Automatic annotation (TrEMBL):
Lineage summary: Bacteria, Pseudomonadati, Pseudomonadota, Gammaproteobacteria, SAR86 cluster
Matches recorded under Pfam families: FAD_binding_3 (PF01494)
Domain named FAD-binding: residues: 4-349
GO MF assignments: FAD binding; oxidoreductase activity
Stretches of the chain forming a coiled coil according to its record: none
Gene3D superfamilies the record matches: D-Amino Acid Oxidase, subunit A, domain 2, FAD/NAD(P)-binding domain
Protein name per Swiss-Prot or TrEMBL: FAD binding domain protein
InterPro entries in alphabetical order: FAD-bd, FAD/NAD-bd_sf, PheA/TfdB_FAD_monoxygenase
Natural source organism: SAR86 cluster bacterium SAR86E
Key words of the record: Oxidoreductase
């Protein structure tokens, strides 16, 4: 019977991303996936800045860059076609070094992941196989898998199991993990439309058609692919609703917004399908040495485009922790923070997506009037826009963060990444900080390094200790300097995933760094 470090169940985009991350970290992996081929229907279409930053860490961003287009703004339109509000994203700060919203084609994304995974000799891929049995205990896992074509069965063991097997997850059900239902179910028709090659999409903005009779979303994706979403009403006849004639009639009032020269006959309808949007979240992301990621753990309404993003972030959060435990650097308790942190973030994301959906999708005339009035006010008084969020800071409030020294500071947020074109020693900022914990100090006195070297437990940083003075290249574009100034930060311990473990101001800085390092050592030391 073969034994593996990790068995990944599922080889969709989240499972494939996980396979790449964990293989790069040196784990011996088996991936079990019932399907052979990539599903050629585009589903997820959006990455945020942090997800692109993860691709940077994986070494695949150059390939990803070939299949993405930025979202340049959002426009809210009322049912009469009048613009309520228009917001440009081009001036938004690139806190992660990238546009905070880009569109992509999912099948092409999965091709990149599978091609990259094929270079790893420590990945064994079982396509056309499914997991039929899982016996999990605290030390190991026994899996029985079956070839769907031949009914051949095999047994294997793995130290860890990572479930990326989707909304109907076998692993989640096998472990009897319950899900919290946010009771926000909605039915929408999702339409993919391909514009003829002779036309171009001139407006790369998102359109929210705030029509209380038929809320609609219009999204230009990439390469003339356009995504439409139409809310289904209780009285609708679904078969009639999904007819091509009906769908094109829904598109007619707004398709010209992408290019005045196009109309409903300027392209091909690729698909039209009913989707039920849910808000679901597992009570636990971890049982024994089994971990849930992606749709197996959470299902988010699509109004912020965060479903796939959060699945990739699940894997990224888990990978460095599991590697540290496997290498004997961290104690096993750190794995419990995976569930704490990912549940908190996904709960926030689901609730925020529900609120966004309620804003654009309300079919209550009074609420629709109030929304339209607010947008009209925000158009005249831009400060009112502060009530609307178009960028999100993924702050951890619990888990592996320091809660002792600077509890109201920037602990738990992701440190800004300077312009990705700025390099030191031919490395972008994240690569410069390295894959372990790192300590950065923003100070003109570079002799501080001598005092810091005498602090106990500094080996946790593996020499990733950096003093940035005001002339340092990474401070040139102002992102780090602004972050430091606004939060009164002179020193920060950065986790491998670039969340801030803890930070402090410049008063008695050596003592405060010593305290932070001791706290970190006590939490993670093996």
């Amino acid at each position: 019977m073969k034994n593996y470090d990790i068995a990944i169940v599922g080889f969709g985009p989240v499972g494939a991303a996980a396979a790449n991350m964990f293989a790069e970290s040196g784990f011996n992996i088996i991936v079990v996936e019932p399907k052979y081929d990539i599903w050629d229907i585009p589903r997820a279409v959006h990455f945020d800045g942090q997800t692109q930053r993860i691709f940077q860490s994986m070494g695949i961003f150059d390939q990803i860059q070939e299949i993405i287009d930025p979202i340049l703004g959002v426009n809210f339109i009322n049912r009469n076609g009048k613009e309520l509000l228009s917001v440009s994203f081009e001036s938004h700060p690139k806190l992660n070094g990238y546009y905070d919203g880009v569109m992509f084609n999912q099948p092409k994304f999965e091709e990149i992941l599978r091609k990259n995974a094929s270079k790893y000799s420590n990945i064994e891929l079982k396509l056309g196989w499914q997991v039929d049995k899982l016996d999990s205990n605290i030390d190991s896992n026994l899996l029985e898998i079956t070839n769907k074509a031949t009914n051949q069965t095999e047994s294997l063991t793995s130290t860890y199991v990572i479930a990326a097997d989707g909304a109907d997850s076998f692993v989640r059900k096998n472990l009897n993990i319950k899900m919290h239902d946010y009771k926000c179910d909605q039915d929408w028709v999702v339409v993919d439309y391909l514009l003829d090659k002779k036309y171009k999409v001139l407006d790369k903005s998102r359109y929210q058609i705030c029509d209380y009779k038929r809320p609609t979303t219009l999204l230009p994706i990439t390469n003339n692919h356009i995504r439409w979403e139409f809310k289904i009403n209780p009285e609708d006849d679904l078969e009639q609703l999904e007819s091509e004639k009906n769908i094109r009639s829904f598109m007619e009032p707004h398709i010209w917004r992408l290019n005045p020269d196009i109309d409903i006959n300027s392209g091909t309808l690729i698909r039209s399908s009913k989707y039920s949007f849910h808000g679901l979240l597992v009570d636990e992301f971890k049982i024994n040495n089994c971990f849930l990621i992606g749709d197996s753990a959470h299902q988010t309404p699509p109004f912020l485009g965060q479903g796939l993003c959060q699945g990739i972030k699940d894997s990224y959060n888990l990978c460095w922790k599991l590697k540290g435990v496997n290498d004997g650097i961290y104690n096993k308790k750190i794995l419990d923070t995976f569930s704490i942190e990912r549940r908190e973030i996904n709960d926030f994301m689901i609730r925020t997506a529900i609120k966004q959906g309620n804003v654009i999708g309300t079919q209550n005339m009074v609420k629709a009037f109030m929304r339209d009035t607010f947008f009209s006010i925000a158009k005249i008084f831009p400060k009112a826009l502060s009530a609307l969020k178009f960028q999100y800071s993924w702050k951890l409030n619990d888990g592996l963060i320091d809660k002792d020294l600077f509890p109201n500071g920037a602990n738990g947020v992701i440190i800004p990444q300077p312009d990705i074109n700025i390099r030191v020693d031919n490395k972008q900022f994240d690569q410069y900080l390295g894959e372990s914990f790192s300590l950065i100090i923003l100070n003109e006195d570079e002799t501080l390094i001598d005092d810091i070297s005498n602090i106990e437990f500094m080996d946790i940083f593996k020499n990733n200790i950096h003093i940035f003075n005001s002339k340092h290249p990474f401070l040139k574009d102002g992102r780090l300097a602004k972050w430091s100034c606004e939060n009164s930060i002179s020193a920060a311990i950065i986790r491998p995933d670039k969340h801030i473990y803890g930070c402090c101001d410049g008063v008695d800085i050596i003592k405060k760094i010593e305290k932070l390092v001791k706290n970190l050592h006590n939490e993670v030391n093996a």
